[in-house]
Amino acid sequence: MADWDLSEYDDKLSYLRAFETVFLVDDSAAMTPYWDQVKELLDHISPICAKHDPDGIDLYFVNHRPKGFIEFLPGQSVRKSGYRRIGGFTQLQTRDSVAQIFENVGKPGGRCNMGARLQKLLNWYLGKVKKDPAFGGWNLIVLTAGKFDDDVKAPLAEAAKRLDEMKTPAHQLGVQLLQLGNDAAVSNAFRHLDDDLHQAAGTRDIIDAVSMGTSGALTADEMLKVVLGGVVKKLDAFKEAVPDHVPVKRVDTDD
């Protein structure tokens, strides 16, 4: 993985202060060839995000849940189904935190019900925004091989529709899909999600997609696209909507 000189990107990266940066990692069997890439990528990117996001980053997996989380326990919040504030208020070293989390996860395996996982996470966040529109935006970065076993279009289109109905700012939610590997069918499907889904659904565009290929190497420009790709289309409008001196409200509870 390249060492990036990001000094010239500080202005754009500063936008991360107004977003909760959330990673959703595909840990299905299809990710086995790319697992070391994912760990290394998060090892490099998470400190960058945490530097500009005072709460650190949140990290969720499609299949893995932290110890003690019971999936179908009544009243159990999906917020507790991942790892929060990595590199943030806990003052832990982000590199060590990511490494420990991946030790907990172990090897990838099983199916990739990405649609179901997205639906639960997006429903939780949009429910919070509906109760209080002042909440800051979500920058959701999905790392996946793209071999989905369920429908991802429906939850993404529904999220965009709900945002339109609530008349939230254009920057409220961005979803960055990062494809691991170079499967042509997956690339085509991602291009459809990126370019066509919002037009077919008649909603705002919340999706950006990029392929990491098989090399595992990203330039600084490509890294910036991964971190900000889901929201970068709205950056100019966002800068006017939320000046640098205005504090951004965040979801601080786990409920």
From TrEMBL:
VWFA domain location: 20-235
Matches recorded under InterPro entries: VWF_A, vWFA_dom_sf
Superkingdom of the source species: Eukaryota
PANTHER family: SLR1338 PROTEIN, VWFA DOMAIN-CONTAINING PROTEIN
Protein name: VWFA domain-containing protein
Protein species of origin: Cryphonectria parasitica (strain ATCC 38755 / EP155)
